[in-house]
Amino acid sequence: MSIDGGEDCMYSFGAILGARECADTHQSREIELCYETIDSANSSKLRFCEACVSCTDSWLLYNCINCQDSVGCVGLRNKSNCIFNEQYSKEEYKKRLQEMRLGTFSGLKKAKETFEELKKRTPRKFAAILKSENVTGDDITNSRNLHCCFNARNEVENCRYGFRLHERVKDGMDAFIVWNGSELFYEAVSVTGQNVKCSAFIWGGFNVQYSYNCFDSNHIFGCVGLRKKEYCILNKQYSKEEYEVLAPKIIEAMKAKGEYGEFFPADMSTFAYNETLAQDYCPKTKEEAEHIGFKWRAPEKKEYSITLKTEAIPENIADVEESIIKEILECAHKGICKEQCATAFKILPQELMLYMRLGVPLPRLCPQCRHMERIRLKNPIQLWTRECQCAGAPSHRHGENKCKESFQTPHAPERPEIIYCESCYQQEVA
């Protein structure tokens, strides 16, 4: 779980800025009383919603903006009292909502199935790119000159092959989690600073190479755990003159061996492959990970006894008693999935309170399995070259002929979604 600036949040991941009283959310900000919400912002009382902005009191929305009191809708703008993209009166909506019985596990499951079919039938934009120019990738906002970058937001410029680049970041390549005015970085993981190469967990600094977990340190090479230091090699202090002689010699020796410019070897990782985000986005088996040099962490043996089988979990949230927090619930996957299933889980008191306030049925999966279900709903960190699937319309610039616009998209050719170019999407959906 990774939370930045959230309050009273549970089982959530990724920069949850301004989130309050939420659970099972992913990459969302300024949200309140939300459950199972992905890539959304400025919203409240959402359940199982993706890519929504300024929406309230709704269930199962995808790519909706400024919508209220709606269920199972895709691509709507400024709407209320809609169910599966059909408009209802306020009274009809309330009646239909009661009939759907979303507070029951079976009722919610049925609504999810209809919602997923609607998502497949509704054209979607080739990538989530907003207010940006000359970029390829996905989930990009207010940026320019990016190649194959993902989750790049707010003045990111001149970068290639980056993931999670935020807030005035520029001139970098091959990086994961770089933010807050960072410049000139290469092969960097979790970095703020300038001129950072082949390093990880650098919290401020300049001219940093092959270093790890250092704070506000400048001109360092091969260092670990330094605080406010400069001109150090392998954590040893040198004068400025000594450093400027020795560091280039080390670089030349590394170049001769073909090592310079490459990130730390896999066997130097302080984490096992399957306990990192790599396993979420690029899953591997134990054998595959070990074959390329990574460690693998064996699952811990759990010392507990399940007190409530999956089939015995109450169907309706209205039937759940407070004593449920004392139970150990069985995960429906029972450890046979590939999600590092915990096999069992408990309901926290504040978690139960949220479910009751939102009218959401109790989950049947453990937090880890739920997290992986959210990951699968997101687009992969990969691009394919495809053509717009718009078959033609009189109002479009290509008329009734098929659109020939091509683009780079995270939607693989074999996936079922209908993918449109920017122009066709704006004409037909937005």
Structure description:
Strand 18 (230-233) and strand 19 (236-237) form a beta hairpin. This protein has four domains: 40-122, no CATH class; 129-256; 310-377, no CATH class; 384-428, no CATH class. It starts with 6 loop residues before the first strand and ends with a helix. Helices cover 20% and strands 34% of the residues. Strands 11-12-13-14-15-16-17-18-19 form a nine-stranded mixed beta sheet, with helices on one face. It has helices at 90-100, 105-121, 240-256, 277-281, 286-291, 349-358, 367-377, 422-428; strands at residues 7-10, 20-23, 29-32, 35-38, 41-50, 56-62, 68-74, 80-83, 86-87, 124-125, 129-130, 133-141, 144-153, 157-166, 170-179, 183-209, 212-221, 230-233, 236-237, 329-330, 344-345, 384-387, 406-409, 419-420. The mean pLDDT is 95. It is globular. By secondary structure, it is of the alpha/beta class.
Topology:
Layout: E1 7-10, E2 20-23, E3 29-32, E4 35-38, E5 41-50, E6 56-62, E7 68-74, E8 80-83, E9 86-87, H1 90-100, H2 105-121, E10 124-125, E11 129-130, E12 133-141, E13 144-153, E14 157-166, E15 170-179, E16 183-209, E17 212-221, E18 230-233, E19 236-237, H3 240-256, H4 277-281, H5 286-291, E20 329-330, E21 344-345, H6 349-358, H7 367-377, E22 384-387, E23 406-409, E24 419-420, H8 422-428
Parallel strand pairs: 1-2, 3-5, 4-5, 5-6, 6-7, 7-8, 10-24, 11-12, 12-13, 13-14, 14-15, 15-16, 16-17, 17-18
Antiparallel strand pairs: 8-9, 18-19, 20-21, 22-23
